[in-house]
Amino acid sequence: MDPRGVCKPTPDDLMEDAGSGLDYGTRPDRMLGDITPVDRFFIRSHAPTPLIDAATWALSVDGDGVRRPMRYTYEDLCQHFPLRSMVRTIECAGNRRVLFGEELGETFEGTQWGRGAISTAEWTGVRLRDLLEPAGVSSGACEVMAESLDAIRACRPLPLAKARAEDTIVAIAMNGEPLLPDHGFPARLLVSGWLGAASIKWLGRLEVSEEPKYVPWNTEDYVLIGPEHPSEGPGRGPAITALGISSLVELPWPARLLPEPQIIRGRAFAGEHRVSEVHYRVDEGPWCPAEITSASTPGVWARWQFEWNPEPGEHVLRVRAGDDQGRVQPESTPWNELGYMHESVVAHPVQVVGEDRAP
Ligand SMILES: Nc1nc2c(c(=O)[nH]1)N[C@H]1C(S)=C(S)[C@@H](COP(=O)(O)O)O[C@H]1N2
Ligand SMILES: [Mo]
Residue 261 and residue 258: Cα distance in Å, rounded? Predict the structure, then answer.
């Protein structure tokens, strides 16, 4: 184990160090295809990566909301249940926190994320509901709490309906290979379209309960605290569930380009919804449609592109994504204490320089 607490290499040419020693974003100009290669998939861990032996590992399903507590081994998951594969994006609720702070002229505490706390994999695993069913979920059950085996025993409850969704799975593989330790080996939850913190890694227990559960991750962290977000329960603000809408340009910040025709690419994500349109704007020019070049699926980022022949000089590129619910990225995001859920259109600085001065 690396003294940093993560196992996989995190070279600067693929990943951006978010400062804590445990958190690394994917470099936006190295995101490559629809699916993020595992070597650059972002990492967000609150404690060092635990090294778990799959041969002795087990996942228990218990709580007052089940009639027969169950215990599944790694072999049970790999061999005794139907396996489902699906491409899904995971985004941290704190993605773009640094840009959010710059927008409001302040510095938010917490992981100093730029734009890279978002990645997409093909996940393979067992539907969570297939693991709940043998335990006999009671008619009064309302939540399923996922609990981790890491040093902080991270946990966060899910409403039963989301736990039973077609695309909520206990994943054992990522891009066709067993999970890497940093991403939750031997098994993690994958909650489609929700904040990354719902997708508990190093899963050890699923507690089905007949009462709502309150834990640090739905009362103090991963809640929206601020005047625009009145608290509805015992938490400091409403717990974040589905993610908002955002986009990024696949270029460094600031970008340096040559003054010649080229394709500008990027991605947009709308949480549980489908990205349906992407517009871009150069400097103070008109908004123009970008072409969406990937299948647009709920829970998965969409890729987009446009052609640009930039004039030499300093420019600002803005991108505004919209989803199938008619939601579009706003000009600004209301303040919340922990700097979550930044959705604003961002002004991406671009320097266009002659051939001899290009990088
Ligand atoms: N056990 C555990 N699960 C966890 C976390 C953690 O620190 N511990 N971090 C969460 C957060 S905040 C995010 S954004 C995602 C990141 O998943 P990744 O590291 O595979 O990209 O994992 C979630 N699951
Ligand atoms: Mo996160």
Answer: 9
> What atom in ligand 1 is closest to the CA of residue 148?
1
Which residues neighbour ligand 2 (ion) by CB within 5 Å? 44, 92, 196-197
Q: What is the mean pLDDT of residues 236-242?
A: 97
Asked if pLDDT for residue 118 goes beyond 80, the answer is yes
pTM of the model: 0.97
Instruction: Pick from 15, 95, 152, 201 the residue to mutate for probing ligand 1's pocket: most ligand atoms within 8 Å of its CB.
Output: 201
Contact of 89 with 301, CB cutoff 8 Å: yes
Distance, in Å, from the CA atom of 103 to the CA atom of 85, rounded to the nearest integer, reads 38
**Ligand 2: centre distance to CA 140 (Å):** 30
For the chain, the average pLDDT equals 97
pLDDT at 57 over 70: yes
- Cis-peptide, bond into residue 48, ω within 30° of zero: no
Q: Which residue has 């227990």 as its token pair?
A: 205
Among 345, 344, 339, smallest CA distance to 107 is for: 339
pLDDT surpasses 70 at 178: yes
CB 315 within 8 A of CB 262: no
Q: Given the CA of residue 43, which atom of ligand 1 is nearest to it?
A: 19
Q: 44: CA distance to ligand 1 center in Å?
A: 5
CA angle 89, 95, 100 (to 5 degrees): 145
303 CA → ligand 1 middle, Å: 24
pLDDT of 288 higher than 70: yes
More confident position, 357 or 242: 242
- Locate 309 and state its tokens: 């022949």
pLDDT band at 354 (very low <50, low <70, confident <90, very high): confident
Going by CA atoms, what residue is nearest to atom 11 of ligand 1?
197
Residues whose beta carbon lies within 6 Å of some atom of ligand 1: 41-46, 90, 92, 148, 150, 154, 183, 196-197, 199-202
pLDDT higher than threshold 60 for residue 186: yes
